[in-house]
Specification:
Number of domains: 2
Largest sheet: 5 strands, antiparallel
Number of strands: 11
Order of helices and strands: HHEEEEEEEEEEE
CATH topology of the largest domain: Immunoglobulin-like
Strand order of the largest sheet: 2-3-11-7-8
Helix content: 10-25%
CATH class of the largest domain: Mainly Beta
Shape: elongated
Strand content: 35-45%
Radius of gyration: 21 Å
CATH architecture of the largest domain: Sandwich
Number of helices: 2
CATH superfamily of the largest domain: Golgi alpha-mannosidase II
Distance between the termini: 39 Å
């Protein structure tokens, strides 16, 4: 990272210019532009509020990828959570050690739900039909 206004000289300047030509330097002016071109491991559909924490067991390739979900949407006037519905979660395929074909969502007070897994390029997608507070998704 080189802050704006730093005067580079000689070899340093030449090196930076070569990186720019090769596309190896990332030039940014704000945090959003700094993330340009970086593919996140997890994406939550725009307009939806859900926290996702993927966990995998690198010691056991047969273990499923597990995603913990938390819904931060609370309505203080009603003293209740605001359900998040039909939330599309997109995960980079590298998170899953093998082909994921089965997804099961576990939430409190509900029966486990089998969900469809879609393959979209280098990502997999699962739609969470409803999350009130928290849940766990198992991808196998």
């Amino acid at each position: 990272m080189i802050p704006e206004g730093v005067a580079l000289k000689g070899e340093q300047k030449e090196l930076l210019e070569s990186w720019k030509r090769e596309g190896r330097a990332v030039l940014w002016t704000d945090p959003e532009s700094g993330l340009h071109g970086i593919e996140p491991l997890v994406r939550v559909a725009k307009g939806k509020r859900l926290w996702v924490l993927p966990r995998r067991n690198d010691q056991n390739s047969a273990a499923p990828l597990v995603c913990h979900f938390f819904n931060p949407c609370y309505d203080a006037k009603r003293d209740s959570m605001i359900d998040q519905t039909n939330v599309v979660i997109s995960l980079r395929r590298i998170l899953v050690s093998r082909r994921a074909g089965k997804a099961v969502l576990y939430t409190p007070y509900e029966e486990p739900q089998k969900l469809a897994v879609r393959s979209v390029g280098k990502r997999i997608e699962v739609t969470i039909p409803k999350l009130t507070l928290w849940g766990i998704l198992s991808l196998e």
